[in-house]
From TrEMBL:
Domain KIB1-4 beta-propeller: 26-299
One Pfam short name: Beta-prop_KIB1-4
Lineage: superkingdom: Eukaryota
The protein, known as: KIB1-4 beta-propeller domain-containing protein
Record-linked InterPro entries: F-box_BR-signaling (IPR050942), KIB1-4_b-propeller (IPR005174)
Organism (species): Anisodus acutangulus
C-alpha cells in the first residue's frame, strides 16, 4: 500500500450487552465515536486496507465486504467455495476464522468492478482470490513447499505475500491474461531466514517493500496471558535479500488484525513508530476473555512501548482492529 494521509480508527471489540453498538477510537484526536452496526453482531471482522472496509464472516459460512461509513454490503461466495474448507469438519472458532487475512487491491466504492480481493485462508495458510462477478474463489498453490503465509500487500498490479519464514511470493494481476478465475505465481523468492519470530507482516511504502517481524506472540501454557510484544524488526527488500531498517522517518506502521498500513502520521501520532493491535490468536484463544491485551505503540528507535488505547477491549473472534 502507498503511504496514507491519515491514521486509521481503532474499532473496539463487540460488547456482550448492546452488541450492535460499536465504538471507534480516534487516536489522533483522543476521542471515541459510537455508532450502531447491527450488521456486525456476532461477525468475525478483518480490516482490508481501505478506510471503513471490513471483511466479515459468520458461523453459517457467509462472507461479505462491508463499508462502515456508507453501509455498502458486497456479498462474497460462501466459505465452502474455498479450497480445503469442509463446513461439517470445521467447528466453532475454527470455522468462522478460516480466513486469517484479507486485502483489497483498490476501493470498491471508486473502482466498482475493477478490484481484486485476496485472502489468506485455511491450514496451512494459502492464497485465494476473488473478483466481482465471480461465483467462486481462485486458489493459488504456493511454489514454496510447506509455506504458510502470514500477510499480503498490493502494489502496482501485484500482490506480495510473505510467509512466516520470510519467503516472498509475487502474483501478477496486470496482464489481460488474468480473468476472474485465473492467477499465477510469477516469482518466488527464498531470501535468508531473518528471524525466528511469531508474526510477519508486509507493506509497500514510498518505493520500498517492507517486511516486519513481531516477536512475543506465543505462549505455550494454557491460561497464561504473559504473551506480548518483545521486539519488532523492520526490513526492506533489496532484490532477494533483506536489509534492516532502523529509521522509518516520517512514517508510522499500523498492523495487527487488519491489512498492514504505512501512514504519514497526522497530529497526535508520531513517525518511526509501529501502532499494533492483538492478533496473537494462538495465545488468546485459550483464554476466556479473548484477545485485546497485546496493543501499543512501539518506538523503533529505542524499543520502548506505550499504550495507544488505555481502556479494556477484549474478544475471541474480533479483538480491536484498525479500520
Amino acid at each position: 500500500m502507498a503511504v496514507e494521509v491519515a491514521a486509521p480508527l481503532l474499532m473496539l471489540a463487540e460488547k456482550e450487552e448492546n452488541a450492535e453498538i460499536r465504538e471507534f477510537w480516534d487516536l489522533s484526536k483522543g476521542v471515541t465515536y459510537t455508532m450502531n452496526f447491527p450488521e456486525l453482531v456476532g461477525k468475525y471482522c478483518v480490516g482490508v486496507g481501505f478506510p471503513g472496509w471490513l471483511f466479515t464472516a459468520d458461523e453459517q459460512g457467509h462472507m461479505n465486504l462491508f463499508h462502515l461509513f456508507s453501509r455498502t454490503l458486497i456479498n462474497l461466495p460462501d466459505m465452502d467455495m474455498l479450497q480445503g474448507f469442509a463446513f461439517q469438519e470445521e467447528l466453532g472458532c475454527d470455522r468462522i476464522t478460516y480466513v486469517q487475512k484479507a486485502l483489497l487491491s483498490s476501493d470498491p466504492l471508486s473502482s466498482t468492478d475493477d478490484y481484486v480481493l485476496a485472502l489468506i485462508q485455511g491450514y496451512p495458510r494459502t492464497f485465494a482470490f476473488w473478483r466481482p462477478g465471480s461465483k467462486s474463489f481462485t486458489s493459488v498453490d504456493s511454489t514454496i513447499p510447506y509455506c504458510a503465509f502470514s500477510d499480503v500487500t498490493w502494489h502496482d498490479g501485484h500482490f506480495y505475500g510473505v510467509s512466516f519464514m520470510g519467503n516472498i511470493v509475487i502474483l501478477d494481476f496486470t496482464s489481460d491474461y488474468y480473468s476472474t478465475t485465473a492467477a499465477r505465481v510469477i516469482m518466488s523468492q527464498l531470501p535468508p531466514r531473518v528471524a525466528c519470530s511469531n508474526k510477519v507482516y508486509i507493506v509497500y511504502s514510498m518505493g520500498e517493500l517492507l517486511v516486519i517481524n513481531r516477536d512475543g506472540c506465543h505462549n505455550f501454557e494454557e491460561g497464561d496471558d504473559s504473551y506480548g510484544v518483545k521486539q519488532f524488526r523492520v526490513y526492506k527488500i533489496n532484490d532477494s535479500s533483506y536489509e534492516e531498517v532502523k529509521d522509518l522517518g516520517n512514517r508510522a506502521l499500523f498492523l495487527g488484525f487488519s491489512a498492514t498500513l504505512a501512514v504519514e502520521p497526522p497530529p497526535g501520532c508520531q513517525g518511526n513508530r509501529i501502532y499494533f493491535t492483538d492478533d496473537c490468536r494462538e495465545a488468546y484463544f485459550c483464554m476466556e476473555r479473548g484477545g485485546g491485551k497485546d496493543m501499543g505503540v512501539y518506538n523503533l528507535l529505542d524499543g520502548t512501548i506505550v499504550p495507544h488505547y488505555t481502556g479494556q477491549s477484549y474478544h475471541k473472534l474480533t479483538p480491536p482492529l484498525w479500520v
